Amino acid sequence: MLRRGHHAQAQAARAAEGREEADEAGWNGRSAAGGVPRGAESGLAEEIVTSGARHLYVHLPFCAHRCGYCDFVTAVGRRSQHSRYVDALLSELELERRLLAPELETVFLGGGTPTFTEPAALERLLESLPPAVEVTVEANPETVTQGLARMLRSHGVTRVSLGVQSFRPHLLDVLERVVQPDTVRRSFYHLRDAGFDNISFDLIYGIPGQTVAALEADLADALELGPEHLSCYELEAKPGTRFTHAHGDELERQSDAMESYFELVVERLRGAGYRWYETANFCRASELDLRSRHNLAYWLGRDYLGLGVGAVSTVAGRRWRNTPRLAGYMEALERETAPERAVEPLSHDVRRRERVMLGLRLDEPLVLGELATVLDERAVSRLELLGLVRSDSDRQTLALTPRGRFLGGGVTADLLA
Questions:
Q1: Please, what is the average pLDDT of the chain?
Q2: Where in the chain is the domain with CATH 3.80.30.20?
Q3: Neighbours of 212 (CB within 10 A)
Q4: Which of 35, 113, 280, 369 fits a disulfide with 342 by CB distance 3.0 to 4.6 angstroms?
Q5: Is residue 292 within 8 Å of 275, Cβ to Cβ?
Q6: Residue 218: CB atoms within 10 Å
């Protein structure tokens, strides 16, 4: 699995569900926590009482090809279905619109490769979505033309997240990325020329064949361009995939180097003036807040509505995941019924545990209050002695140290009673 900051939605869902993946082969209509499958003609908006989620995620699953390390819900090609899929998205939006607040803070189009979607269908989708303060679209560099960049900007997109991954051609080949470094630079300048002043790069470390020098060079190339935001992720290949079969021995070698890679990323980006605000995310120091507002909503435990195949929502104490079957998703909405969903009620205890697990990813100390009830006090003391967490004198706040942030999930699992 690849821990991806722009898929913090997946992090939020997995906080309760463990490492379960919602792929088409494994879907059985049930959530790991025992939720039951359902679909309602009127959707869930008729049942849930809420003041409205202020964060909207829209999943566009289409890609030119599926990279070997990817474990997200995707569909290769299928251009003839893009417009039909957008119709389904907009139908789902109408079914669940009452779950949204009158004014949204963020909209995030993720994938898949949203910018692989047929331009006319993508434009129609953007025209139909509610406006928001921050509107992010994920993009692969090879899909970004001058025309696409201008279209995104003119349709209210405020932020673009570019899937760079690496500037080294041999590492891009290993990742099965159909892009070259010059294409990355060209796409960046297209976005700048279109008026985008908030661009994020995704970089990966731990790639088979990567060295410290190669990662240094990737960071230098990224910093030369000067994006406002960088997300740097550790590659974790899912067992049993063709990627692990092809690179198993080298992946083991890379796993031994992960901490040194992590430390290098943090050192270089902080040294270049970027704020290390979340375990894998950095933003340029500025009078403006350049953090990803959408992903912050996940890490802060806020409600969000997800639209699309495989999309996850958490609203008013319930979590549900749409079916990852593309045909089933579209067919249900063409009948004006909600797609099949796994629905899970979230107890106060579960929400508190998730709040700790996700909140400790951030650089600001977590204010405990009622969250203290889910912590193991002996574990807190032990981890403080090990230099992995820190708290104030009266245990009102808790934060991970830099090494604790690298170990992340293992530390938070120990903290929870």
A1: 88
A2: 5-299
A3: 12
A4: 35
A5: no
A6: 26
Tokens of 401: 């140290």
At residue 50, φ and ψ (nearest 5 deg) are -155, 150
CA-to-CA distance for 9 and 358, rounded, in angstroms?
11
Residue 124 has pLDDT above 70, yes or no: yes
Q: How far is CA 27 from CA 85, 149, 321, 342, in A?
A: 20, 36, 11, 10
Tell me the percentage of the chain whose pLDDT exceeds 90.
Answer: 73
**Predicted confidence (pLDDT) at residue 1 exceeds the cutoff of 50:** no
Give the span between the Cα atoms of 184 and 227, in whole angstroms.
12
> Residue 405 belongs to what H/E stretch?
helix 402-407
Protein fold of 347-417? Arc Repressor Mutant, subunit A (1.10.10)
Q: 20-48 burial string, b = 16+ CB within 10 Å, else e?
A: ebbebeebeeebbbebebebeeebbbeeb
Tokens coding 246: 């092809």
* Token pair of 154 as six digits: 């003119």
Q: Is pLDDT of 223 > 90?
A: yes
In this structure, what token pair is assigned to residue 165?
């991954």
What is the pTM assigned to this prediction?
0.88
Superfamily per CATH, domain 5-299: tm_1862 like domain (3.80.30.20)
User: Which one has a higher pLDDT value, 38 or 256?
Assistant: 256
In this model, does residue 32 exceed pLDDT 50? no
Alpha helices in 102-156 (DSSP H): 119-128, 146-154
Domain ranges in the chain with CATH number 1.10.10.920 = 347-417
Q: What pLDDT sits at residue 20?
A: 28
